[in-house]
Design a protein that fits this description.
Number of domains: 2
Distance between the termini: 34 Å
Structural class: mainly alpha
Shape: globular
Order of helices and strands: HHHHHHHHHHHHHHHHH
Largest sheet: none
Strand content: under 5%
Bound molecules: zinc ion
Number of strands: 0
Length: 371
């Protein structure tokens, strides 16, 4: 167990040729496979209604089968080659465990109860798999800092934030929906709803992004300017290394406040569920991309859309960049309200909180605002 704990608590580049890269891929896939098999066994408690309603179960079974084959294959290969046999043994044991529990062929009762309390284990596994594949590919294709490893310092903290926000998705959605809908129920239908409803998607979606970003701007700026709120938001800014996972470092109180108020504004504006769902997908992708270790410049489009460089400056601890670039999608909001950074270089060199008073580690960061 000692080498496993050492591996999980360490950081740095996975040098190829030593079996470490394939060993870690096998371990990750084997762990995710066991979790997936459990989700197949207990869908009422371990899967998210909004996710399972939209996904093809046979497609998921094929992905699980492929993960088991890859994890098992890499483990056998590394064992035969004598590369980190302890790691290969652990991964292969997990593959055997997943297979013994039924593997990709676990039958699912189509009439399982639909209204049980649940944790979003499926959402965690699927989003971790999809996001890591997509964004690590983009980061390797056009890296901003080529020497920065995927497993950089404090990756464990950010993965814990990622896991908790995904596993608690049901609870978060229940709080956000009841807060937003509850706040608006008394107001009823508004005179402008008919006008918003008749807008086609090409107009409704950009308008929805504009409304959401204006509200997000106000909340985000308040999190910077109100000292009590800053204690929560400082957790997000405490990341000293930027990559796709760093954006997940968010205090859960901030997540609830921001999502509730933005959703309330979109409902008050009268946008349809389809338009709001499309916006949620866009914000999910854009927010992760903006933190990524990716040298992506959009030419003149950078004046229209927030780019990674724009949001990296928001995270900079350099004095000229403090409390600016609040917008999540549309830089024009900062330009009009006088909060846009005017950096002399394309990218910042230092990130984090100036006072550097946010402790490392997930639990310490959860407690930080209340100290
Ligand atoms: Zn901020
Ligand atoms: Zn950020």
């Amino acid at each position: 167990m000692k080498p496993l704990i050492q591996l999980i608590t360490s950081h740095g580049a996975l040098r190829s040729g030593s079996g470490l890269l394939t060993g870690v891929i096998a371990l990750v896939l084997a762990v995710l496979s066991v979790l997936s098999v459990l989700a197949f066994h207990f869908p009422e408690y371990l899967t998210t209604p909004e996710v399972r309603r939209r996904l093809d179960i046979d497609g998921l079974r094929r992905i699980l089968f492929a993960a088991l084959v890859i994890a098992g294959g890499f483990s056998v290969l590394n064992f035969v080659r004598g590369h980190r046999r302890w790691l290969a043994t652990i991964s292969f044991s997990l593959v055997l465990l997943a297979a013994a529990l039924g593997g990709h062929a676990v039958p699912v009762d189509p009439n399982f109860p639909n209204n049980t309390p649940y944790i979003g284990l499926d959402w965690f596994v699927l989003d971790l798999l999809a996001s890591s594949l997509l964004f690590i590919f983009i980061e390797k294709l056009r890296p901003l800092r080529p020497d920065q490893p995927v497993f950089r310092s404090e990756w464990q903290t950010d993965l814990a934030h990622f896991a908790v926000i995904h596993l608690l998705v049901g609870l978060l959605m229940a709080i956000v929906n009841s807060t937003a809908h509850g706040a608006l129920a008394a107001l009823g239908s508004q005179p402008w709803h008919a006008w918003v409803e008749q807008l086609g998607w090409p107009l409704a979606l950009p308008l929805c992004i504009l409304v959401a970003d204006l509200v997000q701007y106000a909340i985000h700026r308040s999190f910077h300017e109100v000292p009590f709120l800053w204690r929560f938001h400082a957790v997000h800014h405490s990341a000293k290394t930027m990559d796709w996972l760093a954006g997940s470092r968010l205090h859960i109180v901030e997540v609830v406040i921001t999502r509730s108020l933005v959703l309330a504004a979109l409902l008050l504006a009268g946008f349809s569920k389809g338009v709001i769902d499309a916006y949620i997908i866009i914000v999910g992708f854009h927010a992760v991309l903006n933190h990524a270790n990716v040298n992506l410049r959009l030419g003149p489009l950078r004046h229209l859309i927030v780019t990674p460089a724009y949001h990296h400056w928001h995270h900079s601890s350099e004095s000229l960049a403090l409390d600016c670039n609040y917008a999540a999608h549309l830089p024009i909001i900062d330009r009009l309200l006088g909060t846009q950074c005017k950096p002399e270089t394309l990218w910042p060199t230092h990130y984090g909180v100036v006072k550097d008073d946010v402790p490392p580690g997930f639990w310490a960061q959860c407690r930080h605002p209340f100290r």
